[in-house]
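Why do we care about 3D structure at all? Because function follows from shape, and shape follows, mostly, from sequence. That is the central idea of this module. The next example makes it concrete: a single protein chain, its amino acid sequence, and then its structure expressed as tokens.
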Amino acid sequence: MVNIFAWNCQGAGHDKFIAYLHSFFVPTRPDIVIIVEPRISGRVAQQVISRMGFDGLLMVDAVGFSGGIWVLWNNQDLKVTRLDAWEQMVHFRCWRRSTANEEVVVSAVYGSPDAAKRQELWTKLMPWLPQLPNRGYLLGTLTRYWGLMTGGEEWLFRKRELGLFDRVSMRVVCMRWVSRVRGSPGSEETSLRD
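And the structure:
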């Protein structure tokens, strides 16, 4: 089994980003870390990534100050192969070399708040989705609008049509994060500003 940690950090340029990210690693011990919406790219992104301590990287740069996806890993027993990438998606397969028959297919996504771009994402994802129910995951942010995540028409249609479901392991979720989010609709993730 491969342990994957995915986080929509909404900005990886903050001084405390790496320390904050590493605070999640103690309870989760991830094999693969997916960072969605780092909002930095180019040389700045490479500097942050080099300080994170990972050997492997699949990356889609942010467009301006929006989006971006990083897939990072640091396990010599782990093999990760890029299948497809686009500005809102990195699609890859991974497995442990010691158990090659337990391959997992993952689509790491950043769903733009722009409806036209989000529709493009669904179009790009459709060929890959049949692989996901049996041996894969769709991780990341499908949309940033709280209404769609909690019952908007587009999300519900796609969710039913594709047989998707939400799964959050509460043992992994930091209670500090839960208490902050609980009282603030519209806030999906905690901010690094505090």
